[in-house]
Write a structure and sequence with these properties.
six-stranded antiparallel sheet; 3 domains; alpha+beta; Rossmann fold; 11 helices; globular; Methionyl-tRNA Fmet Formyltransferase, Chain A, domain 2; single chain; binds zinc ion; 23 strands; Peptide Deformylase
Length: 463
């Protein structure tokens, strides 16, 4: 799937009307795939086939909800009017105000040739109208009531410090838009029973990107400080690095150090914000870009973005979402910092809460707690390290559970029922169905296989 060159404003092909697609064949599907690749690489939200020089009525759109492909689209309904700012991959460096319908209904074919209708409003409606214009040879500047130059985003000379998977999207984003002079990560560590020396996730990605990698033993040493200063970075970007940095390091660069933190600060300062947010049953959390200061996660806020926590979100799924939002917040925050009128927002100290790293004792499930709370803890510890209980002297990991009302009242930890989905265990309040578990030494299995294989009976007890 190659990326295609995007036609620019002065190229005549952009002014031609595209023809309807007659047949959805392999060539068209491969065009769609190439358009996705091209749009994503250019970080656009929509792309019409005319923009890659193909005069067919095809567009792809992704405004962050579901990706949409429209073949032979026609607007069949409109409502409302709204002014808004637009830009276009074919018109780099310019943005303008354009009046569009607030809501549109589009009839189109999908890639299987099936007709469907799309009701679009807000940003999606605007992008649909913009892209359909391209199919008619119309570019947004033709409709704009005013045009302004887009300031080119700043390009910092950055030293990146990060370690875990959470850091990876931020590193990739930085490498695309800034000059990353070095990536600092922790040393390789022996992993597993065979103690195989394993690099941190950030190191592997940095090497793929061809970046210089440093793995200092001690970030507090004067030698490290000097090495860092020698790289002459303009700013340090720290994302889930795993070591506290001394003041000397934070002051090496003219722009200081910024940190991407996985919570809406001042809530959940500390090493395990994602886990604590899930355990506390928060409905939303988010990402903060802040200036780093000597005190843990207490720096002024540059930018924040909220992310909802779904009922099935685990530490794993939520970390992934937050990591991607974090990369966006980082890029936008760096743009914001260079603006003249920019002033970072001090954190409201009185609202600060803490999310310290979890220890071994947090992994054991306490049946006397309410089922809702236990279920949250299990999600907060999934996929790593996992919550567990003891069962017949063995460790039983609880990977997935569901809260149910208890049919009878028994002491917490006792099996009240055995259903098709798995055993039902009494908690301090309500009960939990064990939907997915793992007996130590074995493989994960569903609750029904566990009940059958180990002959679980009502009255059995898990502690
Ligand atoms: Zn456009």
């Amino acid at each position: 799937m190659p990326e295609l060159p995007i036609k620019k404003y002065d190229e005549p092909v952009l002014r031609n009307k595209a023809r309807p697609v007659k047949k959805i064949n392999r060539a068209l599907l491969s065009l769609l795939d190439d358009m996705w690749e091209t749009m994503r690489a250019a970080e656009g939200v929509g792309l019409a086939a005319t923009q890659v020089g193909v005069l067919q009525r095809v567009v792809v759109i992704d405004v962050g909800e579901d990706p949409i492909e429209l073949i032979n689209p026609v607007i069949v309904g409109r409502a409302g009017e709204e002014e808004g700012i637009e830009a276009c991959l074919s018109v780099p460096g310019l943005m303008g105000e354009v009046e569009r319908s607030e809501r549109v209904t589009v009839k189109a074919l999908d890639r299987r040739g099936k007709t469907f209708w799309l009701d679009a409003e807000g940003l999606l409606a605007r992008v649909v109208q913009h892209e359909l214009d391209h199919l008619d040879g119309v570019v947004f500047v033709d409709r704009a009531s005013s045009l302004t130059k887009i300031e080119p985003p700043p390009r910092f000379r950055v030293v990146f410090m990060g370690t875990s998977d959470f850091s990876v999207p931020s590193l990739r984003a930085l490498a695309r838009h800034h000059e990353v002079v070095a990536v600092i990560t922790r040393p390789d560590r022996p992993v597993g029973r065979r103690k195989i020396m394993t690099p941190p996730p950030v190191k592997e990605v940095a090497e793929q990107l061809g970046l210089c990698v440093l793995q200092p033993q001690d970030c507090r040493s004067p030698e490290f400080r000097d090495e860092l200063a020698g790289l002459e970075p303009e700013i340090l970007v720290v994302v889930s690095f795993g070591q506290i940095l001394p003041k000397g390091v934070l002051e090496v660069t003219p722009w200081g150090a910024v940190n991407v933190h996985a919570s809406l600060l001042p809530k959940y300062r500390g090493a395990a914000p994602i886990q604590h947010a899930i355990m506390n049953g928060e409905e939303r959390t988010g990402v903060t870009l802040m200036k780093m200061v000597g005190r843990l996660d207490a720096g002024d806020i540059i930018l924040q973005a909220a992310v909802p926590i779904g009922a099935n979100d685990t530490y794993g799924t939520l970390e992934k979402k937050l990591a991607h939002v974090g990369a966006k917040v980082l890029l936008r925050g760096l743009e914001r910092m260079v603006k003249e009128d920019f002033a970072p927002l001090p954190q409201a100290e009185e609202r600060a809460t803490f999310a310290p790293s979890l220890d071994r004792s947090d992994e054991r499930v306490q049946w006397q707690e309410p089922a809702v709370q236990i279920e949250r803890k299990i999600r907060a510890l999934y996929p790593e390290p996992g919550a567990y209980v003891s069962w017949q002297g063995r460790r039983l990991k609880l990977w997935q559970t569901r809260v149910v009302e208890s049919p009878t009242a028994l002491p917490p930890g006792q099996v009240v029922d055995v259903t098709d989905e798995g055993p039902v265990v009494m908690c301090g309040q309500d009960a939990l169905i064990l939907e997915r578990v793992q007996v130590s030494g074995g493989k994960p299995m569903d609750g029904a296989s566990f009940s059958r294989g180990y002959r679980i009976q009502p009255g059995d007890s898990l502690i």
